[in-house]
Amino acid sequence: MPPFESNAYAAGVQFKGGLATMIVDADPVVKLVLLVLVVFSVFSWGIIIQKWVTLSRARKRAHGILEAAMGASGLAKIKDAATKAGECPLAHVLAEGMDELARLTARAGAISQPMLENVDARLMNASARQVMALSHGLGFLASISNASPFIGLFGTVWGIMDSFRHIGIMGSANLATVAPGISEALVATAAGLFVAIPATLFYNYFTSLVTTSSGQMDQFRVDLVNLLRRGAFHADK
Q: For the residues 24-30, what does the mean pLDDT come to?
């Protein structure tokens, strides 16, 4: 038997039409394509679940810190809000800003303009790192959403090629001969779309959440630096 030869079109085999039967009777290359798509689906849903939890939590916990920063007259209120919020990107940004501020004011009590620029730069750097951390894995999710339909299409084309090869061998082109092979090949396209559609939808949704979190960090950075400019540090001391 030649390599990669399908057993789906042997004479006398009755086509039952069940999905499981079509997968079992599919060409070995189509089966390999389906296996790749199953692996992609597992990775895709793993990323989706992890990002759903992480990004939703980051957005919700940031609200309390932002509200405290907008109406705060001192740093103590913002720190309390960050402590209550718990682990989140905005809390990390605040921690880095406070660390930079503590280093700069260790010897000099007054906050000068160069010091404010240093704190602002540290906050920007911390925000960029948090955005990169939030975006981690989304590139792979985008690759899955883009590649899966084409991988499924490859399986379909290969299956149809094999189907026509068997038609030539059997010398018959009636519907009963053509339908089984083509229907089994089209399973690969359906599987590719099944993997790609949720990956695409969630990639776009998570990208919007990352953009929202990035905007929250930018807003917080501006509010915090303005607070320091108003002398809030000395008021807290």
A: 74
* Own/partner pairs, 60-64, CB within 8 angstroms, 24+ separation: 61/85, 61/86, 61/87, 61/88, 61/90, 61/91, 62/88, 62/89, 62/90, 62/213, 62/216, 62/217, 62/220
pLDDT of residue 168: 73
**Which of 57, 55, 6, 49 lies closest to 28, judged by CA?**
6
Query: What sign for the dihedral angle of Cα 130, 134, 136, 139?
Result: negative
29: tokens are 């290359």
Answer yes or no: are the C-beta atoms of 73 and 235 closer than 8 Å. yes
What gap in Å lies between CA 74 and CA 69, rounded to an integer?
9
The pTM (predicted TM-score) of the whole model is 0.78
End-to-end distance of the chain based on CA atoms, in angstroms? 85
CA 151 – CA 32 distance, rounded (Å): 10
Q: How far apart are CA 31 and CA 130, in angstroms?
A: 41
List, for residues 94-145, the tens digit of each pLDDT value: 999 888 888 887 766 667 777 888 889 999 999 999 999 999 999 999 999 9
Rg (Cα) of the chain, in Å, rounded?
29
Beta-carbon contacts of residue 27 (< 8 Å; ≥ 6 apart): 4, 6, 8, 158, 159, 162, 184, 185
How many CB atoms are closer than 10 A to CB 175? 8
DSSP, collapsed to helix, strand or coil, labels residue 8 as: coil
pLDDT, tens only, 37-61: 999 999 999 999 999 999 999 988 8
Does residue 201 carry a pLDDT above 90? yes
